[in-house]
Structure to design on (434 residues):
């Protein structure tokens, strides 16, 4: 038989040009691509997995950040995110529920249905959607990003664009382009979590176990030294599927989310811990005696990794003082939520009913043109990031980044030079809350 040509040769095949290129289809990237398409831009969305949604479909099942905490919740995110939530609710696949720690109302949904909904919205918008495509480098002309190099089963291809959005979560494109970033410092980065779902739960009994009781039982089980339970709190909550509960219990600490070797160890440790927490629930908690693990998160949940140093850096003081900004593109009232090493999580709440602005400048990397970021890799310090990283805020950032990229294309300029009032008017027309 003849030997096939090496598909991984260094020769780059040209995938053509688009107006707006989005890399990563988590909630930020998916919303960014939809927003750009709604502004009339030609959009290409690249995703390394075989489905859209990122953390929203791989790890979690609840959107937080849509509402401020407190006695009178106030909605602070709207627009394209509302389209997603309402579509899930119409099918009975989403409902509202309070957070275990008083962090506001969450929108709990069926992540499997959400996978399909994201791609239905993508195809309806007319964008080009490409799965199983991993971006490995950027294309540059001087200080401007002009596209990316991506690897697939058929080799390497270059994708060129007028505006590029980094929605990788880890600021991969920004870092590859040489934009300054804040990396991971040992002992400071937030812990990771492998989530899992349980079936065969006695819901009538399990739902009568308060969070305080669950946390007390975690402490008691750990003290027997028969269970290795790094986290002594967390949550187990209902889902849209009868008899199925979802968990947020595992804690894997001190991991650099941009290092494959460390991530490999974290994935293995997260799954090991998941089995241990299942054993604890079956042995100690009423209602879980016959529970079985139905699924594990596709990958470990990463709360914090690389963040850009943008034209503005959101700070702890901005968050706690509920600061307003002239270049606001989204709002957030979520508390500072730090998953530290050890058994407990640190919470700090804004004043009752207050929210702060997310500045557009936090999405613009320094020293690089033609690039926007969206999602948890925005420019923010450690504590501010621990508030603004919620999925609803990531969707708001994606909505702003996609709209800004499309405006830049229309105005034949770079995203950093568009007029802020034009962007804000466009966001309001989508239903965004500023």
């Amino acid at each position: 038989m003849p030997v096939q040509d090496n598909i991984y040769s260094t020769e780059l095949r040209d995938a053509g040009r688009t107006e707006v290129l989005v890399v990563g289809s988590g909630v930020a990237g998916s919303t960014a691509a939809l927003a750009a398409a709604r502004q009339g831009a030609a959009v290409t969305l690249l995703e390394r997995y075989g489905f859209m949604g990122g953390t929203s479909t791989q790890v979690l099942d609840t959107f937080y950040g849509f509402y401020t905490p407190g006695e009178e919740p106030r909605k602070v995110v709207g627009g394209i995110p509302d389209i997603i939530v309402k579509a899930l609710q119409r099918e009975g696949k989403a409902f509202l529920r309070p957070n275990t720690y008083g962090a506001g109302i969450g929108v709990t949904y069926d992540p499997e249905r959400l996978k399909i909904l994201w791609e239905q919205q993508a195809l309806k918008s007319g964008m080009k959607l490409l799965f199983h495509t991993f971006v490995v480098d950027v294309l540059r002309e001087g200080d401007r990003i002009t596209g990316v190099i991506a690897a697939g089963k058929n080799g390497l291809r270059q994708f060129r664009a007028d505006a590029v959005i980094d929605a990788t979560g880890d600021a991969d494109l920004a870092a590859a382009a040489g934009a300054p970033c804040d990396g991971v410092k040992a002992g400071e980065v937030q812990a990771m979590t492998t989530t899992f779902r349980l079936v065969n739960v006695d819901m009538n009994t399990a739902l009568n176990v308060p969070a305080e009781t669950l946390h007390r039982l975690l402490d008691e089980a750990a003290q027997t030294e028969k269970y290795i339970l790094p986290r002594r709190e967390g949550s187990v909550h209902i889902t849209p599927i009868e008899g199925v509960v979802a968990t947020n219990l595992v804690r894997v600490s001190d991991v650099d989310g941009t290092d494959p070797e460390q991530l490999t160890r974290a994935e293995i440790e997260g799954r090991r811990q998941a089995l241990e927490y299942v054993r604890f629930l079956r042995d100690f908690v009423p209602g879980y005696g016959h529970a079985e693990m139905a699924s594990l998160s596709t990958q470990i949940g990463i709360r914090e990794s690389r963040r850009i140093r943008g034209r503005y850096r959101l700070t702890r003081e901005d968050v706690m003082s509920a600061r307003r900004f002239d270049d606001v593109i989204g709002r957030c009232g979520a508390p500072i939520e730090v998953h530290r090493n050890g058994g407990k999580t640190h919470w700090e709440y804004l004043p009752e009913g207050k929210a702060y602005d997310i500045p557009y400048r936090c999405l613009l990397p320094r020293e690089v043109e033609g690039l926007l970021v969206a999602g948890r890799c925005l420019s923010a310090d450690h504590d501010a990031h621990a508030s603004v990283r919620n999925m609803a805020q990531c969707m708001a950032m994606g909505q702003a980044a996609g709209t800004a990229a499309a405006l830049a294309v229309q105005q034949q300029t770079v995203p950093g030079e568009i007029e802020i009032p034009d962007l804000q008017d466009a966001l309001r027309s989508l239903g965004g809350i500023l």
About this structure: The mean pLDDT is 94.
